[in-house]
């Protein structure tokens, strides 16, 4: 997963212009996700809440528009995972609980597809809603996947949203089989 953390703000803006033009010429799921992630990177770089909300809103609109146009299940799953992540970012910024509800509404209907990023979104939103039994359930399902790509165990361990449970025995036990 590329999150563009190594780019300066000028490089992010340049990359944004480049990917927006590419998307206009030839729309794709990957470009829609890239465009949204670049906006999320601008959220990280900004110190102004109004600006952050603006970039998050742009990311949501891009992802939802692409999701409506998605023709393949893999595209819909990737876009939904990115959309769930974006709504989690809205929650992190505003602490408004309805963003957790929206996150769950985006991700839960797709959970039966066992997409790692969808399940990870459900783990994170469950912890943030203090629904530990559900967090444990989703994490158990995630850890049973034979391939968690593009997600890594380190991503789970370092997720700020999971800091409330990272030291609990059940959490460590569920991660243990995937640790190398």
How would you characterize the overall build of this protein?
Helix content is 70%, strand content 0%. The protein is an all-alpha fold and 180 residues long.
Taking pLDDT < 50 over at least 5 consecutive residues as the criterion, the unreliable ranges are none
The total beta strand count reads 0
As a percent range, the share of helical residues equals over 70%
Radius of gyration: 16 Å
What string, H for helix and E for strand, traces the elements in order?
A: HHHHHHHHH
Number of helices: 9
Look at the helices and sheets and give the structural class.
mainly alpha
Query: What sort of overall outline do the alpha carbons produce when their principal axes are compared?
Result: globular
Relative strand content: under 5%
Mean model confidence by pLDDT:
94
Largest sheet, if any? none
Rounded to the nearest angstrom, the distance between the terminal CA atoms is 20 Å
Question: Quick gist of this model?
Answer:
With 180 residues, the chain is mostly helical. It is built from 9 helices and no strands.
């Amino acid at each position: 997963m590329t999150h563009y953390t190594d780019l300066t703000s000028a490089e992010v803006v340049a990359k944004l212009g480049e990917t927006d033009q590419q998307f206009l010429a030839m729309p794709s799921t990957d470009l829609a996700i890239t465009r949204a992630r670049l906006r999320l990177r601008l959220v990280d770089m900004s110190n102004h809440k109004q600006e952050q909300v603006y970039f998050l809103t742009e990311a949501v609109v891009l992802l939802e528009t692409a999701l409506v146009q998605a023709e393949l299940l893999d595209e819909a799953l990737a876009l939904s995972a990115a959309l769930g992540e974006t709504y989690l970012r809205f929650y992190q910024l505003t602490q408004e609980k309805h963003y957790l509800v929206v996150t769950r509404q985006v991700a839960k209907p797709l959970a039966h597809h066992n997409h790692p990023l969808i399940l990870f979104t459900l783990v994170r939103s469950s912890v943030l809603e203090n629904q530990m039994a559900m967090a444990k359930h989703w994490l158990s399902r995630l850890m049973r996947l034979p391939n968690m790509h593009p997600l890594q165990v380190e991503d789970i361990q370092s997720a700020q949203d999971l800091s409330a449970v990272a030291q609990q025995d059940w959490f460590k036990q569920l991660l243990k089989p995937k640790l190398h």
